[in-house]
Write a structure and sequence with these properties.
single chain, 397 residues, alpha/beta, Rossmann fold, three-stranded mixed β-sheet, 18 helices, 55% helix, 11% strand
C-alpha cells in the first residue's frame, strides 16, 4: 500500500502519514489511547486513496471527526501545535523545569490509592484544564495544589487527604519498608512487582533468593533444613522435636526453624535499606509478622507489614497448578502433591498475622489486592504525616 504524504509548506516537509504519530498526538491531547488509535485508523481509511494531503487538511479532518464523536473539548489541545500539544513545563523547588509527565502524575495518584482508571481520568482532566487555561509553565507546588483541589472536588476529602499524605511522605525523604508475607502460590511476587511499579520502588528482595544465597554458603550437611521447601521443613527436624507433635504442629515447627534462619539475612537487607534511606519491598513465605519487631525501633522508617492469602482452596489449587507454566523452573507437581501442607501453613500464617495485628489481604484478583495494599500503606502514613496543603505544597491556592 502506497504511503500518503503529509505536506507542511510552512516547514517545507513531506513525511508519510503514520497512525502512531496521530495516535500519540491525540493521546497527548487527553483522549484515551484506545479511542485515539481508533480515530487514527478511521483517518487512515479516509485518506488511503490520496497520494498527498496538506497538514492543514489533515488537521481539519481530525477536528471534524472529533466533533462527530462529541469530543470537542479535546480540539484546542490537539490544535495547539497542529501535531502534538504544547508541552507544559513544571518547575521544581530547585528551579529545574521538566515537561509535565502524565504517566508519572498518574502513578502518583495510584500511589495514594486510586485505581488506574480513576487515576488516568484525573490526570487527563487536570492536564486538559491546564491547557484550557493557557498554562504552559507552572510550579510543582502549584500543580500539587491544583491536583489536591481537583481530587477533593471530584473524589472527596478522604482521597484528597490521601494524596496530601503521600506527597508529604515523598518530600520527607523517609524510607518505606513494605513486608509482604504469605504461603506458596498466593501471589507474593506478582503483587510485589505491581506495587513496586506504582510506588516507584526499585529495590525489591525475595526471601527465596536470600535462602538460595545461604545454600551456596552453608553446606547441606551442616543445615539440611535450608535445602527443602518451607512446607516440608518439618521432615528434617530432629526426631525428638517432632515425635510428640501432631501434623499441624510439625509443619509450623519446621517452618519456624527455617524462618528463623532466613530472618538473619532478611533483617540485614532491611537495615541496609534503612541506612541508605531507600525504600524496599521484602516478600516471601519467610516474612513472618514477628519480623516487624526487629525494625520497629527505628522511628525514621515507615514499616508496613501485609499478609497475603488465597482463602478458597480451589483458587489456591488453580494458582499452584499454573506455576509450571508461569515459572517453568519451579514446576507445579510438588506443590500439588503437598497441597494439604501448604494449606495448613497458610492457615498458620494468617493466624499469626491476626495475632500480631498485621493486615490480611485476600488476593482473589491482582488489581483489587494491589489497591488494598496501597490504601493500607496510606493508612499507616496518616499516623505519621498531617501537614496542611499550604505546608505540604508551600503554595497558597
Amino acid at each position: 500500500m502506497a504511503k500518503t504524504l503529509v505536506i507542511d509548506t510552512s516547514e517545507g516537509t513531506r513525511i508519510p502519514f503514520l497512525r502512531g504519530i496521530l495516535t500519540r498526538s491525540l493521546y497527548e491531547a487527553g483522549i484515551e489511547f484506545d479511542e485515539a488509535y481508533e480515530i487514527a485508523v478511521v483517518i487512515r481509511q479516509e485518506i488511503t486513496s490520496l497520494s498527498e494531503i496538506s497538514s492543514q487538511q489533515l488537521r481539519d479532518k481530525v477536528v471534524a471527526l472529533l466533533r462527530q464523536r462529541s469530543l470537542q473539548e479535546y480540539i484546542p489541545a490537539y490544535q495547539s501545535t497542529g501535531r502534538i500539544p504544547q508541552t507544559i513545563m513544571v518547575q521544581d523547588a530547585a528551579n529545574q523545569a521538566t515537561p509535565f509527565s502524565r504517566s508519572q502524575h498518574q502513578l502518583c495518584l495510584e500511589s495514594c490509592g486510586l485505581s488506574p482508571k480513576s487515576a488516568e481520568m484525573a490526570t487527563r482532566s487536570i492536564y486538559q484544564c491546564l491547557l484550557g487555561d493557557g498554562i504552559r509553565e507552572t510550579s510543582s507546588a502549584r500543580l500539587g495544589h491544583i491536583t489536591y483541589d481537583y481530587l477533593k472536588e471530584n473524589f472527596g476529602s478522604e482521597v484528597a487527604r490521601h494524596y496530601l499524605v503521600w506527597v508529604e511522605f515523598t518530600h520527607s525523604g523517609r524510607p518505606l519498608i513494605l513486608l509482604i508475607g504469605g504461603a506458596p502460590g498466593c501471589g507474593k511476587s506478582t503483587i510485589s512487582t505491581e506495587v513496586a511499579h506504582r510506588l516507584g520502588i526499585v529495590r525489591t528482595q525475595s526471601t527465596d533468593m536470600l535462602r538460595e544465597v545461604m545454600r551456596m554458603m552453608i553446606p547441606k550437611k551442616l543445615l539440611p533444613i535450608l535445602y527443602t521447601s518451607s512446607f516440608n521443613a518439618w521432615k528434617l527436624l530432629p526426631l525428638e522435636q517432632k515425635s510428640d507433635l501432631d501434623q499441624e504442629s510439625r509443619i509450623t515447627a519446621g517452618y519456624r526453624s527455617q524462618m528463623e534462619l532466613i530472618s538473619v539475612p532478611s533483617e540485614g537487607v532491611i537495615q541496609r535499606a534503612i541506612r541508605e534511606r531507600v525504600s524496599l519491598i521484602l516478600e516471601g513465605v519467610h516474612v513472618h509478622p514477628s519480623l516487624i519487631e526487629k525494625i520497629s525501633g527505628n522511628g525514621d522508617v515507615i514499616v508496613v507489614p501485609v499478609m497475603l492469602g488465597v482463602l478458597k482452596q480451589d483458587m489456591l489449587l488453580k494458582r499452584l497448578s499454573g506455576r509450571g507454566k508461569r515459572v517453568p523452573g519451579r514446576g507445579s507437581q510438588r506443590y500439588l502433591e503437598n497441597f494439604e501442607q501448604i494449606w495448613t501453613l497458610q492457615s498458620f500464617l494468617l493466624s499469626e498475622a491476626d495475632h500480631y495485628g498485621v493486615p490480611i489481604v485476600s488476593n482473589d484478583e491482582k488489581e483489587k489486592a494491589s489497591i488494598q495494599i496501597m490504601r493500607i500503606i496510606i493508612d499507616v502514613m496518616q499516623g505519621e504525616f498531617s501537614g496542611s496543603p499550604e505546608e505540604v505544597f508551600g503554595y497558597e491556592g
